[in-house]
Amino acid sequence: MPYPFPSDVSQRIHTHLERGHFQTEDDVLRAAITALERESDDLAAIQAGIDDVEAGRFRPFTEIDAEFRQKHNLADKA
Known about the structure:
Blueprint: H1 7-18, H2 25-54, H3 61-71
């Protein structure tokens, strides 16, 4: 499906192609969409963490650290 990109976007796509980062415009677009999807997933995970903290669903770091150190046979902090 051909799409007439704005000139600035087209230039950025062609810069990636010229540098050899991608073989085709489709490859550039796939990578861009993948990056957007990852960013969206990351933001959703961050928001879920914020929601958990605001709802009181968390444990103090010292508790998690002690549990991790015991599980992996690591010395207590000096």
